[in-house]
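Minutes, structural biology subgroup

Action item carried over from last meeting: produce the structure token record for Glutathione S-transferase (Methylorubrum thiocyanatum). EB confirmed the sequence was re-checked against the source entry. Recorded below for completeness.
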Amino acid sequence: MAPANDTTLRIEDAVNDLCPWSGKPIVPEALTLYNGAVVGFCDAACRDKFARAVAAFEDALRARRVANAGLHQ
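Output recorded by EB:
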């Protein structure tokens, strides 16, 4: 999940020091933005796993909202 613009993400701005998936230290090459905050990972594979998880949860929430509203997509 790359940043939406050309802003360079900096490791010192990350809200975490350890990868939430592996528990290893984060690296500058595996940063992303999440809800306006820089989040770090130990490698690109963990960063991409996070992006897939976020997308899946967002899709599930969107489907639930549609179902609760009685709408069908």
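Discussion: The chain has one helix and two strands.
Next step: EB to file the record with the rest of the batch.
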